[in-house]
Structure of Heme oxygenase (Staphylobilin-producing):
Amino acid sequence: MFIAMNRFKVVKDATAAFEQVWLDRDSHLGEMEGFVEFHLLRGPEAEDHVLYASHTVWRSRADFEAWTRSEQFRKAHGRAPGTRPLYLGHPQFEGFESIQTVARSDAA
């Protein structure tokens, strides 16, 4: 399993607009081999921003890398938000290989 995350420092008065951009987008993730799930996470507030993370789970790093080279990726990232900047700086990418997974066991 591979987890791809981007962290965004969103300007405090732009959080609603930032969230709406994500809710309105056509992600095309479901069209990709190896895609498992996506989460948009809202984190702690700082003095000048709110931290958000996009969190995508893939079957493998190779599946994620195929996504980054795909037409679906270009379509999903081609629509830029309005002229007003919603976040500070560039998103910070972090990629993680899964070492261990512990799942809930429903066996009683």
The first strand starts at residue 2 and ends at 11. The chain has one domain: 2-97. The mean pLDDT is 90. The radius of gyration is 16 Å.
